[in-house]
Specification:
heterodimer; A: alpha/beta; Peroxisomal Thiolase, Chain A, domain 1; three-stranded mixed beta sheet; globular; B: mainly alpha; Non-ribosomal Peptide Synthetase Peptidyl Carrier Protein, Chain A
Chain lengths: ~575, ~100
């Protein structure tokens, strides 16, 4: 599968080239922000220039299908995504309105800032995805991947699987997250932010910086004629730590397993990997975790880079943005410098450099990890030929199913007690996780060898409202009209994929985990997603659920399936 | 006479402290959603983290929020929290000495 076009909009520019040149020049978009969103503590963050965004958007607005005649309002998030797609398609030149083109939006929190002023659907992730896809006249229902910080990489993996299945010719993957009072206060409450510019993999690293970005890759089965961006995505994998919902595994469990499942493409003996672009957030635990995973995988002699010193952690855009910069580096034969790195840390004994390096090798490995214990790895290769892989989707049979419905939390707690399980964590969970937990317990309660470690089971959940229930609770804790005490425990659950992490922790499932947001229950899409995730060579089973939460209604439909043939 | 008065006052301190420890336990149970735990289940001298209550790093941050919200105590460095969490008694004493509300 080939990358036909790309774009990055960030504090460092509005095109891939502008961003890439700034990285090579050693420029950082991070700045000291004294009272960002009126928050009491200062932060270091990278922010998109709103004035330039507005100008760039107005310049292309006339091209949009939804702006013909009517006065449609767009949020900054939607404008950034739209401008990004238009620029990416200047190289790719695909039919954005074709039924053979699918839009995939990767975001953690979308327009969450509208949640406070506007209870309507405008803050919903599927709504933003629809605004973006419809503005190009695309009528396929867009998909939203909301898989915490690995969303961007997970969206690229979803794209290559959809292309392999043959239904689409082109996929537009847009990763976007803007900062808000909601997001920044949450990371502050978790004490994850650095009080200075971040220092990935450094001895004195002290936390991460947040950043804003929109980044797009257009991925196709066929290369375009000019062939400028001749980079293939070879393979990708997602694995879970099954350890903790917010702390990375000390042993790099899920990250190592994701890398290990890509061994056919990254064997150290092949000597084909130019560099590893790590997540490298500059928190103590993340960087130590990635180092442990890279060493376990035997890849410690390959140069490792982090781009966080230029852009900060751009959340749902990170997997896309960092892949694009790394693709450009691969094409140019350079290894980007890790800005902010000065001295080797004992727990990160890797090959890291704060100066730009050179390499003529043909591949790079992208790593990324996120809350919910989820980790992803991707391998990219530059070549003159596009690797066409047409694979019929595997079939599956349903082994078990479970459907539960409750009116409120008290009923859910009652059901938990009736199951006679001793798992006090249950009472800490948000409603999404409680529902996922109860349904998976119902399915697995009589399973033989319960709690034996499993890597061959994927856990995939879907809904239409993402984590709205936890979002509203968290919003209450940062209400400007009240005392300001953001709750770290609630903030973690404002990532909808935490439910997949909770199920993985409970059952010791180290397999793939994922979360998709759809406008409405869509059986065909969900069946295709199950086929997609069992197309991973190591995945033979999948646990999938649609989870619905409305005012007086909490419902989950879960199935447990096995790959056939 | 003096000795007795001092004894009386020390005694009063302990009763007050005991009540405060019970109150603090209840606050922690509520904020951490320790649904089936009662104040008397928590040993005054046992570590809050590790075995026993099964608390984790997010719980530690929630207790730090509780200290600020209910008692006006700011813990800048979560590492300092670790020392305070060696027992509920130690935490209660620290709060009693440093509270601003």
């Amino acid at each position: 599968m080939i990358i036909r076009g790309s774009n990055i909009i960030s504090s460092l520019g509005f095109s891939t080239e502008e961003n890439f040149r700034n990285v090579l020049a050693g420029n950082s978009g991070l700045k000291y922000c004294k009272r960002l969103f009126g928050l009491p503590e200062p932060v270091f963050a990278s922010i998109i220039d709103r004035e330039r965004l507005s100008d760039e958007f107005n310049a292309v607005k006339g091209l949009l299908k939804t702006c013909q005649g009517g006065e449609q309002q767009f949020t900054c998030l939607e404008m950034a995504a739209i401008v990004s797609v238009i620029d990416a398609n200047r190289d790719a030149n695909i039919d954005l309105d074709s039924e053979k083109t699918l839009f995939i939006l990767s975001t953690t929190k979308g327009n969450v800032d509208l949640l406070s002023v506007d209870g309507s659907q405008k803050s919903m992730l599927w709504y933003s995805a629809e605004i973006i896809a419809h503005s190009f006249g695309n009528s396929n229902m867009p998909t939203v991947v909301s898989n915490a910080c690995v969303s961007g990489a997970a969206a690229i993996i979803t794209a290559i699987r959809e292309l392999k299945s043959g239904k689409y010719d082109n996929i537009v993957v847009v990763g976007v997250d803007l900062l808000s009072r909601f997001i920044v206060s949450g990371f502050q409450s978790l004490r994850a932010l650095a009080g200075d510019f971040c220092r990935p993999f450094d001895r004195k690293r002290c936390g991460l910086n947040l950043g804003e970005a929109a980044a797009t890759v257009i991925i196709s089965r066929k290369r375009n004629d000019n062939g400028d961006m001749a980079v293939n995505i070879m393979a990708g994998a997602i694995r879970n730590d099954a350890n903790h919902i917010s702390s990375p595994s000390r042993t790099g469990e899920g990250c190592f397993r994701a890398i290990a499942s890509l061994y056919p493409y990254i064997k150290p003996s092949d000597d084909s990997i130019a560099f590893i672009n790590a997540h490298g957030t500059a928190t103590q635990y993340n960087d130590a975790m990635e180092s442990a995973a890279i060493m376990r995988a035997g890849l410690q002699d390959i140069p490792v880079t982090s781009l966080k010193g230029y852009f900060g952690h751009t959340l749902g855009a990170a997997g896309v943005l960092e892949s694009i910069i790394s693709i450009r580096a691969l094409q140019e034969g350079v290894i980007p410098a890790t800005k902010g790195f000065e001295s080797q840390a004992d727990d990160c004994p890797l090959k890291i450099d704060n100066k730009t390096g050179k390499s003529g090798k043909t591949r790079f490995l992208k790593l990324i990890s996120g809350f919910g214990g989820v980790n992803a790895a991707l391998v990219f290769e530059k070549s003159q030929v596009s690797v066409q892989q047409n694979l019929p989707s595997p079939e599956f049979k349903i082994l078990k199913s479970c459907s539960l419905s409750f009116t409120d939390t008290t009923q859910m707690n009652g059901y938990y007690r009736s199951m006679n399980i001793n798992y006090p964590r249950f009472f800490k969970m948000d409603q999404l996780s409680k529902l996922g937990f109860l349904a998976s317990e119902t399915i697995f309660k009589d399973e033989k060898n319960r709690f034996a470690e499993r890597e061959d089971i994927a856990v995939i959940c879907f809904n239409s409202t993402a984590s709205m229930d936890a979002d509203m609770m968290y919003l209450e804790s940062i209400n400007p009209q009240k005392d300001y005490f953001p709750s770290p425990a609630i903030f973690v659950y404002t990532l909808p994929n935490i439910v997949t992490g909770e199920i993985s922790i409970r059952n010791k499932f180290f397999g793939e985990t994922g979360f998709f947001v759809l406008k409405s229950y869509d059986r065909d899409f969900m069946l295709q997603s199950i086929k997609n995730c069992i197309s991973d060579n190591f995945t033979n089973f999948a646990l999938c659920a649609w989870i619905d939460i409305a005012d007086n209604h909490r419902e989950i439909k879960m199935i447990y399936v096995e790959k056939c043939g | 006479m003096w000795k007795n008065a001092a004894d009386y006052s020390i005694n009063k301190y302990y009763i007050k402290m005991d009540n405060f420890i019970t109150q603090l336990k209840q606050e922690i149970i509520d904020v951490l959603n320790l649904e089936d735990v009662k104040p008397e289940d928590i040993d005054n001298n046992a570590p809050l983290f590790g075995e026993g209550l099964g608390l984790d790093s997010i719980d530690a941050l929630e207790i730090i929020v509780l200290m600020e919200k209910n008692y006006g105590i700011k813990v800048k460095d979560p590492a300092q929290g670790k020392e305070l969490f060696q027992s509920i008694k130690r935490l209660a004493e620290y709060i009693a000495e440093n509270r601003t509300k």
